[in-house]
TrEMBL record:
Residues 279-371 form the DYW domain. PROSITE patterns: PPR. GO terms for biological process: RNA modification. Belongs to the PPR family. PCMP-H subfamily. This is DYW domain-containing protein. The lineage of its organism: Eukaryota, Viridiplantae, Streptophyta, Embryophyta, Tracheophyta. PPR repeats lie at residues 115-149, 150-184. One of its GO terms (molecular function) is zinc ion binding.
Amino acid sequence: MAFVLKACSAIMALEEGQQVHARILRSGFTLNPYVQSSLANAGVGIEPDEVSLVGVISACAMAGALDIGKWIHAYINKRKIDIDLELNTALVNMYAKCGCIEKAKEIFDEMPVKDSKAWSSMIVGLAIHGLAEDALEVFSRMEEAKAKPNHVTFIGILSACARGGLVSEGKRHWSRMLELGIEPSMEHYGCMVDLLCRGGLVDEAYNFALSTPSPNPWEKMSHVRKKMKEKGIKAVPGCTSIEIDGFLHEFVMGDWSHPEAEEIKRTLKDVSVRIHSTGYEPCVSSVLHNVDDEEKENSVSEHSERLAIAYGLLKTKAPAAIRIVKNLTVCWDCHEVTKIISKVYNREIIVRDRVRFHKFVNGTCSCRDYW
Ligand SMILES: [Zn+2]
Ligand SMILES: [Zn+2]
């Protein structure tokens, strides 16, 4: 039962979660067949409505809970619940954020009507998968369809250009965004700085960063970080979740409260022995990479993603992929190790970090070591 509660709390911690979840519990519709039957036994039996379904699917998207999301999708089909624009958009977003971009595309293409939100969800989904060309293609279709792009659309477009190294395309879309009267946010500026840096235009990137509205957000950020340090406030701790049989398990570095902690430690040891036999040496200095401070200071071998991957190796069998979701950016060392694990254990590992997906297969990553 502990894991049922864990899954519930993970869902509840999310945006609309609390209220939605209360409604689901009341309606007898819940996240797992096991929970569902136990609630059905309790004698509640009201049908879930579309609003609560959109909420739960969005929660699955945020948590990266693919199995639960798929289960709800199947439930919707089984019950012949009418899938409207909003529900379809939620499904596109869920599949994209849970790593199934093909399924997201399939649903999106079959949507009879699409609004700005639907188009944007697809574009952002393609962008986080590093599919820059596809994102731009969908964007031009969006313009042809006369749907109005919004600030989210441009976060998708600009980040797609940045990841794809498409400098002139990115600049063109930046101008287009300003033309449309969309006020650039910190995120848009971040994408542009990223884009220019990747294009080797470091000076331009620097000037661009300086051109951001005053007070300069970059300065402000480092100022805030410094203040937090002074006051002893810790940055957000790294946390990685993995879904096993419809239950979310959350791992935080140094937290060994998981009931299977001993087995996880043994698996970690096995991983360590096997990756070292390939000649791997840990690289503690991740200074050159954009790693969150909190993570940098800690022992890399126990980063939360390592625990989640170890748990995945322990609880699942090939050819099932190991899918994990991390709230921060993956550090260089964990990225290297995950590549080696994918080869040594012959397992596909899909990591969603704060900004993008990494798909590790046979010793390489889909990001081509660029994130
Ligand atoms: Zn790490
Ligand atoms: Zn990668």
